[in-house]
Specification:
The complex is a heterodimer of chains A (240) and B (506). Chain A is an alpha/beta fold and 240 residues long. Helix content of chain A is 38%, strand content 25%. In chain A, a hairpin with a 2-residue loop joins strand 9 and strand 10 (213-218). In chain B, a hairpin with a 3-residue loop joins strand 2 (52-53) and strand 3 (57-59). The chains are: A alpha/beta (240), B alpha/beta (506).
């Protein structure tokens, strides 16, 4: 579904992503772990071109999105992103946040979009908040709504960029539960995370990134129980 | 008997018929002669003037702004004798001569015959000789040119007196200082306050000012300085000899008749006040000043009209500025492929810099005199000028608002599939406008105050109302203070309302 070929990214002189090749298959749930500064977020942001790769190709459903001819806006409608700092639209209420993209981009009529939004809000127990503004919500609520905002677009892929890193510990679980509930759907997920236990629980494949490279890759079983490289062993040791 | 009677009757009838036909053909002949005057509209004399020059042409402030004056009465008399109807068109003074022959048949506007003007139009014989006079304080006497040495002389920009004094300074009296004014009222007030030593100006205006400040001033004929007189003439397009000679002929008749003295009596002759007939000075208490300023002759109506003009200009200019400012801000931030400011962005930036770097008064005058020189509606031109000016400031406010919106907001919208326009329109602009509201309110309030200069393009705004009341009521303190107070109340009320609205929004 997503094919990455020889991906390189430089920030000025700094080589942040080093020749990455990888295939993501439909319904994959890929966790990317690794030390800070290893290029995890940059890799994720390259997938939807929020960051422009310096060289290499990325294919989404066989279309090369690194080619200028591909309409990246259409691709992004199917490949949403959830951010570390939620990034809910501050000028809009919870409900407006959720229905904005479906109504404006997919031209779903407002009534229908609201119905869908309310169903989702109910499912995650956030219906009471629907008319509040982002600044009236807790961090956990914001992130759950950001996820709902993505789901409302009915995407094929959701990219999670450290979705729980800026949350208070007691709110992390409520967000993880939401993400966990998505594993039952058809949505392909790629997440950059520091929650190793969580990664182990929901990912079907785990990537360990270090210094801009995919150092090790495999099932959670393999990565967490039988790490091959010293680097990964060290990394895991610190977390235990 | 019968035959005789018949004969007489026949002769009678014949002669009546003869006389009738004769007189009719005669009448027809003279009619034809009149019709042969080429006018733009058949049977109508379209007259151009600029009704800001009392007592020759001015708009009556009390009665429906009808144009009156010496020139108007004179041209009506002339047209009557030419058997033409009069249609008076009021236009900017600079537009009068260019309009001759295409929009108007002739110009009567206290227009002085000059060599330069004679190159492009024909002039009739003078119908009035404009003299200059000198005003000084009571203790100063000017008897000859040399008395002016070392004095500061005030004149009005663009007048004959102004040119004369400048020439005098250049050629003979290098020691005089010249101060140039826009408003004769302020000029004489400066004389009374000893900021200048003497004022040279049009005789009629001088007489009015003399009376206004009685008994503080001295009035001297400009002839002691060999001040030139101005020959007021009617201007016609080149080549209409027939109309020119007829008008000259009629003008000659009128000038030599009682009609002319009546005209002078009605408009021009001003009785100078003198010590003997001057009554003791009226009661000048604050309350009395207040009453003369507001109540007397219903002058508060002038203020009300002024407030309306000020608010109409401010509100519409603010609206224009707001929308245009947003567009400018967005354009200024457009980037090309290399991530640098695009050409459009550079143009927008250039516009903003030019507008912010030049005085609004000049911008207004450029709009009025150059860009919209054929527009009569001053309010419209003022709205455009102030709107374009405000847009530059609004653009900077909105731009900093746009920059203050977090990157995350844009990325979130982009990652949902919004393009540049969608991100800007749905997410960034609404937030930046909301963040900019306090600055935008300030911009609106300063706009209201800035419109105080629209008097320069002959609009009667609040400040102008204060000037006119000051001129008419012989007061300075009260009319100006009241205007200032009204501005204060307006701006305070508006900021109060806006503050309340903001609180509610949050």
């Amino acid at each position: 579904m997503i094919k990455i070929k020889n991906l390189n990214k430089y920030f000025n002189e700094r080589h942040v992503l080093r020749n990455i090749n990888y295939n993501i298959i439909k319904k994959d749930r890929i966790a990317i772990i690794g030390p800070s500064g290893s290029g995890k977020s940059t890799f994720l942001r390259c997938l939807n071109l929020l960051e422009k790769p310096t060289s290499g190709q990325i294919y989404f459903n066989d279309a090369e999105i690194t080619n200028n001819k591909t309409d990246i806006k259409k691709v992004r409608q199917k490949m949403n992103m959830v951010f570390q700092y939620f990034n809910l639209f501050e000028n809009k209420t919870v409900l407006e946040n959720i229905i904005l993209a479906p109504t404006k981009l997919k031209k779903i009529n407002v009534k229908k979009a609201i119905e869908n939004a309310v169903v989702l809000l109910k499912r995650f127990n956030l219906e009471k908040q629907k008319d509040l503004y982002p600044k009236q919500l807790s961090g956990g609520q914001k992130q759950r709504i950001a996820i709902i905002r993505s789901i409302a677009m009915n995407p094929e892929v959701i990219l999670f960029d450290e979705p729980t890193s800026s949350l208070d510990p007691e709110m992390i679980d409520e967000v993880l539960n939401v993400i966990y509930s998505l594993t039952r759907s058809k949505i392909t997920m790629v997440f950059v995370t520091h929650e190793l236990n969580f990664a182990r629980k929901i990912a079907n494949r785990v990537v360990f990134m270090c210094n801009g490279k995919f150092l090790e890759e495999g099932t959670p079983e393999k990565i967490f129980n039988n790490p091959e490289t010293e680097r990964l062993k060290n990394f895991l040791k610190n977390f235990k | 008997m019968h035959k005789k009677i018949n004969k007489i009757l026949l002769t009678l009838i014949a002669s009546i018929v003869f006389i009738l036909t004769f007189s009719l053909t005669c009448g027809a002949k003279s009619n034809e002669e009149i019709k042969s005057f080429k006018t733009l509209e058949k049977g109508v004399l379209t007259v151009g003037t600029n009704a800001t020059f009392p007592p020759f042409e001015f708009k009556d402030k009390d009665e429906d702004q009808e144009i009156k004056g010496f020139d108007v009465d004179l041209i009506n008399k002339i047209a009557k004798k030419l058997n033409l109807k009069v249609n008076i068109v009021d236009m900017p003074f600079e537009g009068l001569l260019p309009a001759l022959g295409n929009k108007i048949d002739l110009v009567i506007a206290g227009l002085t015959k000059t060599e330069e003007r004679e190159k492009i139009v024909d002039f009739t014989k003078p119908y009035f000789y404009g003299k200059q006079s000198i005003l000084t304080l009571k203790n100063v006497n000017i008897k000859q040119k040399e008395d002016l040495n070392n004095l500061t002389i005030a004149t009005q920009i663009g007048t004959t007196a102004n040119e004369f004094v400048k020439k005098l300074q250049e050629e003979e009296l290098n020691n005089i200082k010249i101060k140039e004014y826009d408003e004769y009222d302020i000029m004489t007030q400066d004389l009374v306050r000893k900021r200048v030593d003497c004022v040279v100006l049009d005789d009629i205006v001088a007489k009015n000012q003399f009376n206004k400040h009685f008994p503080e001033l001295n009035l001297t004929q400009g002839s002691v300085l060999n001040c030139p007189t101005e020959n007021y003439c009617i201007a016609l397009p080149k080549g209409n000899e027939k109309l020119l000679s007829s008008v000259d002929e009629i003008l000659n008749d009128i000038i030599n008749s009682k009609e002319y003295t009546e005209l002078q009596e009605k408009y021009i002759n001003i009785k100078l006040k003198s010590e003997e007939n001057e009554e003791t000075k009226s009661n000048n208490s604050i309350v009395n000043q207040f009453l003369t300023t507001l109540v007397e002759k219903e002058r508060y109506k002038l203020y009300l009209k002024g407030i309306t003009t000020t608010l109409v200009i401010s509100v519409f200019a603010a609206l224009l500025g707001f929308f245009l400012g947003i567009v400018l801000a967005v354009l200024k931030l457009t980037k090309n492929k290399n991530g640098k400011r695009s050409l459009i962005g550079k143009i927008a930036n250039f516009y903003i810099n030019i507008v912010r770097g030049t005085p609004i008064l000049l911008q207004l005058l450029i709009m009025w005199l150059v860009v919209f020189k054929n527009f009569k509606n001053g309010v419209f031109v003022a709205i455009v000028a102030f709107g374009l000016n405000s847009a530059a400031y609004v653009a900077e406010i909105i731009r900093s608002g746009i920059n203050s919106v977090g990157v995350g907001q844009k990325e979130a919208a982009e990652s949902l599939g919004f393009g540049k326009f969608g991100v800007m329109f749905y997410i960034v602009l609404p937030q930046s406008i909301k963040n900019s509201i306090p600055s935008l309110c300030n911009e609106f309030i300063s706009l209201i105050k800035e419109t105080a200069i629209v008097g320069y393009v002959a609009l009667n705004d609040l400040t102008r109302a204060a000037f006119s009341i000051s001129a008419a009521s012989y007061q300075t303190f009260m009319p100006l203070i009241i205007a200032a107070l009204i501005y204060y109340i307006i701006t305070k009320t508006i900021s109060f309302i806006l503050e309340k609205a903001m609180k509610r929004m949050n």
